[in-house]
Each structure stands twice: as C-alpha cells, then as structure tokens.
C-alpha cells in the first residue's frame, strides 16, 4: 500500500516545491488593501485590488537599484510582519524634499528635520511614497528605506478591473 502512495506523495512534494520557488522567485499574487495608492490602485472604492507581483527583476540583477516610478511591494520598515505597497520616488544619490503636507520626518538616527530640508538618499536605499498623500504612511514618516526590503514590483491588476500599473509618478504625488 505504501508503494502505491509513493508516486502520489512524490508528485505532491514536487508540485509544492515548484510552486514555492515560482512564487518566491518569479511571480506571486497580492491583495492590496487601503487607500494609500489611490488613484492607481483601489480606484473603485472597494479598497481591495488583486495584483500580479513580479519578483524576476530582483533575481536577475546583481546590483539592486530600483527604478524610479515603479510600484513596489515592500516589507514594512516599521513592522517586519507586514508588507506595504508604495511608489519609488527617488533612488540612491538623488536629493528629495519631503512632501509639503508633512510637518517633519525622521532621519535614520531619529532626529527630526523640517520638510524644506533636502535629503540625500544614501547608497542602497530609496524613497517611497503612496500616491495618496492624505492616506499614506511612507518615507515622509520613516525616511529612506533599504532596497533589500523590496520584495517585488506590482505589474498588473488582476481584479476587479484588469489593467497594467503605471510606472509614471503622478503629478499629484510630486509637484
């Protein structure tokens, strides 16, 4: 009896292993909740979009320099158990001024600085923001994030309305 179950068990283990590798290194599906990326995501007001996440660019590049404008799925810098989705606004060696609607932000050493003060993005880091400033906790709150926190790029909305995700920074996000 055990010998007849062995091929089935082997098949299940092989399928599970291939699925794990595929969803970790190639593509996965993610549920996007909240309003921080409106109007790009959750435009129907239902607060949930299902997106295709592409992990391949992170696997094939030796130097992990993200592309400005891409929507990234990121391990939360404030809670490692959670993931967040934000748009990459600036990359290493670029200077950025935090959004005007923020009172202050914190540098890495937790010393506050005023919003008019330009920030040089350090090597191996990037600046991320939600498209909807009023509903987003982003780099304006926690500063530049390590590129290593990027898990993949949201490429395509699968549900509720199929469409590609824009890699252009909306004018409303950055004036």
TrEMBL record:
Record carries keyword Isomerase: no
EC number, UniProt record: 3.4.21.-
GO cellular component, one term: mitochondrial inner membrane peptidase complex
Membrane-protein topology: Single-pass membrane protein
Pfam families on file: Peptidase_S26
GO terms (BP aspect): protein processing involved in protein targeting to mitochondrion; signal peptide processing
Transmembrane segments: none
InterPro entries linked to this entry: IMP2, LexA/Signal_pep-like_sf, Pept_S26A_signal_pept_1, Peptidase_S26
Domain Peptidase S26: residue ranges: 11-158
Location within or outside the cell: Mitochondrion inner membrane
Active site (record annotation): 36, 86
Keywords, comma-separated and alphabetical: Hydrolase, Membrane, Mitochondrion, Mitochondrion inner membrane, Protease, Transmembrane, Transmembrane helix
Enzyme class: hydrolase
Major location (coarse): mitochondrion
Top-level taxon: Eukaryota
MF GO annotations: serine-type endopeptidase activity
Leader sequence residues: none
Family listed: Belongs to the peptidase S26 family. IMP2 subfamily.
Name of this chain's protein: Mitochondrial inner membrane protease subunit
Organism name: Acrasis kona
Higher taxonomy: Eukaryota, Discoba, Heterolobosea, Tetramitia, Eutetramitia
């Amino acid at each position: 009896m055990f010998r007849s179950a062995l091929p089935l068990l082997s098949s299940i283990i092989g399928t599970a292993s291939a699925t794990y590798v595929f969803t970790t290194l190639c593509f996965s599906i993610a549920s996007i909740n909240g309003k921080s990326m409106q109007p790009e995501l959750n435009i129907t007001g239902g607060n949930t979009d299902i997106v295709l996440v592409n992990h391949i660019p992170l696997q094939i590049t030796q130097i992990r320099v993200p592309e400005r404008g891409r929507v990234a799925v990121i391990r939360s810098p404030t809670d490692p158990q959670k993931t967040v989705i934000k748009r990459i606004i600036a990359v290493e060696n670029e200077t950025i001024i935090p959004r005007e609607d923020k009172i202050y932000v914190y540098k890495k050493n937790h010393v506050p600085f005023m919003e008019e003060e330009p920030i040089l993005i350090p090597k191996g880091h990037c600046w991320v923001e939600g498209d909807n400033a009023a509903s987003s906790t982003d780099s304006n709150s926690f500063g530049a994030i390590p590129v290593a926190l990027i898990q993949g790029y949201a490429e395509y909305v699968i549900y509720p309305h199929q469409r590609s995700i824009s890699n252009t920074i909306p004018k409303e996000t950055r004036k």
